[in-house]
TrEMBL record, chain A:
GO terms for biological process: amino acid transport. It comes from Psychrobacillus soli. This is Branched-chain amino acid ABC transporter permease. It is found in: Cell membrane. GO terms for molecular function: transmembrane transporter activity. InterPro entries: ABC_transp_permease (IPR001851), BCAA_transport_permease (IPR052157). The keyword Nucleotidyltransferase does not apply. Belongs to the binding-protein-dependent transport system permease family. LivHM subfamily. Its main location: membrane.
TrEMBL record, chain B:
This is ABC transporter ATP-binding protein. PANTHER family: HIGH-AFFINITY BRANCHED-CHAIN AMINO ACID TRANSPORT ATP-BINDING PROTEIN LIVF. Residues 2-234 form the ABC transporter domain. Signal peptide: none annotated. GO terms for biological process: L-amino acid transport. Keywords: Amino-acid transport, ATP-binding, Nucleotide-binding, Transport. InterPro entries: ABC_transporter-like_ATP-bd, BCAA_Transport_ATP-bd_LivF, P-loop_NTPase.
Length: 293, 234
C-alpha cells in the first residue's frame, strides 16, 4: 500500500515536471535554443501567483489564467529581444545569453523579495481524498487534472491545426518549412511563447504545494534537463512520459533511500541515458535535426 | 516570367555565383544543368530567398524578389522542390501534402489540389497515412513534387529530381513534368542528368563554377560539341 501511495503521489508530481519539461523541449526543438532561464520563468510565475494571492486574495488556480498569458508575453519578448538577434551567432553566444538572463532574473528576484521562502495558504491545502484506501492530496490531484487537459489540448493543436503542423515542420525540417511558405521567425516566436506559457502554468500549479524563493529555478531546470534527455530532445510527448517517470523515481527514491539523494539519482539517470541511448528512450529514431549546442 | 540579372552570391568568404544571369519564359521547361558544386542549388536558393545575393537582381513577373523573405516568395507562386526531397519524415504523406498548402493563396484550393495530386500519383493516396520517412525514394520524390503542387505554383523549381532513382522511374517522373507544364505551370529543372533533362526541356543553361558556360535551345544543345564531350561522354 505504501508503495502504491508513493507511486501515485510520484505520478501526480511528475505531471508538473512534465509541463515544465515540455515547455523547455518546445523551445529546444523548434528554436534550437537551450533556455537556461527556463527555471527562472517558473520562479517568476510562482512569484506572480504569490502576488495575486497576497495582494488580490486570488486563488492560485484562478490567477493561473492571467499568469499563463503574462508568461506567454514574456516569452515573446525574450524571443524577440534576446534570441532573435543572436540566432545566427555561434552556440556559445546563445548559451551565454540565456545563462545571463537566468542570473539577472535570479538577482532581480533576490532584490525584490529577499531570500525568503514565500508560500500561499489555501483552504484545500492539506485536504486529501481517499481512493480505495489511498490518500491523495487534493491540490496535487487538481494540478494533475489540469496538466492532462493541457497536454491533450496541446496534442490536438500540434496534430490537427495548420499552425501546429507548421511548428512540427520547423522542428523536423527547417528548410522545407521555409519552402512551403512557413514564416519561420513567427513560428519561433510562437514556440517560445508557448514554451514559457507552459512553465507559467506549471508555476501556478506548483504554488499551492510548494514555496517560492529566488533560486528555485535552478533545481527545477535540472529536473527538466534530465526529463528532456530521457524523453528525447525536441520530442514533446517523450517529455510528458519522461516527466511522469522522474516524478515516480523521485518519490520512490525518497522512500527507499533518502530524499536528499534525489539529485544524485537524477544525474545517474541523465548519464546512463546519454551513454546508452542519447536520442532519448521515447524517441522514434533520429527525430529532429541535430540540436545545435 | 523569372529573370536573374548579374547575381553574385557568397558563403562567407567563398564566392559561388559570379555575375550569373538567366531567364525563364512562361509556359516552358527550362533546365539548369551542371556538375557537382557548379552552383545550381545556390542559384535556386537565391530565387527562393533562402540565400541572400550580394548584388544583382531577381525579378518574378516584373517584381523584385531578391530582398523578400522565403514565405513571401512562396506566396507569389515560386515553389521549390528541394534537393534530397526534404520531406517531413515523421509526418504522414497526407500531412506533408497539407503543409504544401500552408501559404494563404493555396489554402482555399486544398481539396482540389490534393485530388489532383492523388490522381497524378495514385500510390500516394494508397499510402497517405504512412510516414513519409518510411517510403521508397521514388515515392518520396512523388510526395515532394505533390507537396510542391499543393502550393499552387506558377513556377515550379525542381532540384535533382533524378537523384538516387532508377532510370525508368526518372523517365516516368519527367513525363509527369511535361503533363504539369501542359497544365500551365512553368518548370525550372535543375539536374546533373543532362541527356534526359534536355529531352523534355525547351531551353537550357549549363553552369560551370558559378557562371553560365553554355546556353541555348535544348534541341541545339544536344548537338553542342563541348557539352557532348563534357557531360554526355561522347
Ligand atoms: N550553406 C553553404 N555554406 C557554404 N558553402 C556552401 C553552402 N552551400 C553550398 N556551398 C558551396 O557552394 C558551391 C556550390 O554549391 P551548390 O550546392 O550550389 O552546387 P550544386 O550545383 O547544386 O551541386 P550538386 O549537384 O552537388 O547539388 C559548392 O562549392 C558548395 O560547397
Ligand atoms: Mg545541388
Amino acid at each position: 500500500m505504501m508503495i502504491l501511495q508513493t507511486l501515485i503521489s510520484g505520478i501526480l508530481l511528475g505531471g508538473i515536471y512534465a509541463l515544465i519539461s515540455m515547455g523547455l523541449n518546445m523551445i529546444l526543438g523548434v528554436v534550437r535554443i537551450i533556455n537556461f532561464a527556463h527555471g527562472e520563468f517558473l520562479m517568476i510565475a510562482m512569484y506572480l501567483s504569490y502576488i495575486f494571492y497576497a495582494w488580490g486574495g486570488m486563488d492560485p488556480y484562478v490567477s493561473a489564467i492571467f499568469i499563463v498569458i503574462i508568461l506567454f508575453v514574456l516569452g515573446l519578448i525574450t524571443q524577440k529581444g534576446l534570441i532573435e538577434p543572436i540566432l545566427d551567432k555561434p552556440a556559445s553566444t546563445k548559451i551565454f545569453a540565456t545563462l545571463g538572463l537566468s542570473i539577472v532574473l535570479q538577482n532581480l528576484a533576490l532584490m525584490i523579495f529577499d531570500a525568503n521562502y514565500l508560500s500561499v495558504t489555501t483552504p484545500y491545502q492539506s485536504s486529501v481524498v481517499n481512493l480505495l484506501g489511498i490518500a491523495i492530496s487534493v491540490p496535487r490531484l487538481v494540478s494533475f487534472g489540469v496538466v492532462i487537459a493541457i497536454v491533450i489540448l496541446l496534442y490536438l493543436f500540434l496534430q490537427k491545426t495548420m499552425v501546429g503542423r507548421a511548428i512540427r515542420a520547423v522542428s523536423m525540417q527547417r528548410q522545407a518549412a521555409y519552402l512551403v511558405g512557413v514564416n519561420v521567425k513567427r513560428i519561433y516566436l510562437l514556440a517560445f511563447g508557448i514554451g514559457t506559457a507552459l512553465v507559467g502554468l506549471a508555476g501556478s500549479m506548483l504554488m499551492p504545494i510548494y514555496s517560492v524563493y529566488p533560486t528555485l529555478g535552478a533545481s527545477f531546470v535540472l529536473i527538466a534537463f534530465v526529463v528532456v534527455v530521457l524523453g528525447g530532445m525536441g520530442n514533446m510527448f517523450g517529455a510528458f512520459y519522461g516527466g511522469l517517470m522522474i516524478g515516480v523515481i523521485e518519490s520512490l527514491a525518497g522512500v527507499i533511500f533518502s530524499p536528499g539523494l534525489k539529485e544524485v539519482i537524477y544525474f545517474i539517470i541523465f548519464i546512463l541515458v546519454l551513454l546508452i541511448k542519447p536520442t532519448g528512450i521515447f524517441s522514434k529514431g533520429k527525430g529532429s535535426e541535430a540540436v545545435g549546442l | 516570367m523569372l529573370k536573374i540579372e548579374q547575381i553574385n552570391l557568397s558563403y562567407g568568404e567563398i564566392q559561388v555565383l559570379w555575375d550569373m544571369s538567366l531567364q525563364i519564359p512562361e509556359g516552358q521547361i527550362v533546365a539548369l544543368l551542371g556538375a557537382n558544386s557548379a552552383g545550381k542549388s545556390s542559384t535556386i536558393n537565391a530565387i527562393s530567398g533562402i540565400e541572400k545575393i550580394s548584388s544583382g537582381r531577381i525579378t518574378f513577373q516584373g517584381k523584385d524578389i531578391s530582398k523578400m523573405a522565403p514565405h513571401e516568395i512562396v506566396e507569389l507562386g515560386v515553389i521549390q522542390v528541394p534537393e534530397g526531397r526534404k520531406l517531413f519524415n515523421f509526418m504522414t504523406i497526407e500531412e506533408n501534402l497539407l503543409l504544401g498548402a500552408y501559404s494563404k493563396h493555396a489554402r482555399k484550393d486544398i481539396k482540389k489540389n490534393i485530388r489532383r495530386v492523388y490522381d497524378m500519383f495514385p500510390i500516394l493516396e494508397e499510402r497517405k497515412d504512412q510516414l513519409a520517412g518510411d517510403m521508397s525514394g521514388g515515392q518520396q520524390q512523388m510526395c515532394a513534387i505533390g507537396r510542391g503542387l499543393m502550393s499552387n505554383p506558377k513556377l515550379l523549381i525542381i532540384d535533382e529530381l533524378s537523384l538516387g532513382l532508377a532510370p525508368i522511374l526518372v523517365q516516368e517522373l519527367l513525363r509527369t513534368l511535361t503533363t504539369i507544364k501542359d497544365e500551365g505551370i512553368t518548370i525550372m529543372l535543375v539536374e546533373q542528368n543532362v541527356k534526359q533533362s534536355l529531352a523534355i526541356s525547351n531551353y537550357a543553361y549549363v553552369l560551370e563554377n558559378g557562371r553560365v558556360a553554355i546556353q541555348g535551345d535544348a534541341a541545339q544543345l544536344t548537338e553542342d560539341p563541348h557539352l557532348k564531350k563534357a557531360y554526355l561522354g561522347m
